[in-house]
Amino acid sequence: MPPIVAIVGRPNVGKSTLFNRLAKRPKAITHDRPGVTRDRLEATVELDDRIVTLIDTGGMDFDAPEGLERQIVVQAEIALNMADVVLFLVDGKAGRTALDDEMAERLRRTDKPVVVAVNKVDGAEKINALTNDFHAWGFAMMPISAAHGHGVNDLAGALAELL
Ligand code: GDP
Ligand code: MG
Predict the structure, then answer these.
(1) Does domain 4-161 have CATH number 3.40.50.10540?
(2) What is the ipTM of this complex?
(3) Taking a C-beta distance cutoff of 8 angstroms, is the pair 50, 4 a contact?
(4) 42, 82, 114, 145: least buried by Cβ within 10 Å?
């Protein structure tokens, strides 16, 4: 069984877009509206010559009677249970949200390696403005643009090193 890299993050941060890029062919459906994707769950992908099982936890179809916030915490729990490395994706354009903070709080209480990827850093000149918010958590952090591909190879390399 290949090691598992789980992508976690609140809706609309770009999990499916990143998943598709890492899987190198379209496998998940992205959508502009939060919370409506019904995505493919996993793919076997090569990260810097390491074969891994990549999981998009956003595609998990939970019953969420207690609301979005609860759903996201459950998503993090499941990811933590099965992942060898957690890829916590956040949205640099939107900045840090309360849900991001809650998830970070949970992810901090694990021994598993966590990498934060700050997505939607589409142009190099904006890196500092878009990533500043997220330094406070203290996780390893990388700026990426899942849509354009910037930083994605570096991210893959960083994840592979943690396996
Ligand atoms: P998910 O809900 O986390 O799976 O997010 P999606 O992958 O469905 O993306 C949500 C929205 O963000 C879509 O409109 C994407 O086109 C957009 N998006 C994803 N990655 C990027 C990026 O790197 N830059 C920008 N500007 N938009 C992005
Ligand atoms: Mg999605």
Answers:
(1) no
(2) 0.99
(3) no
(4) 82
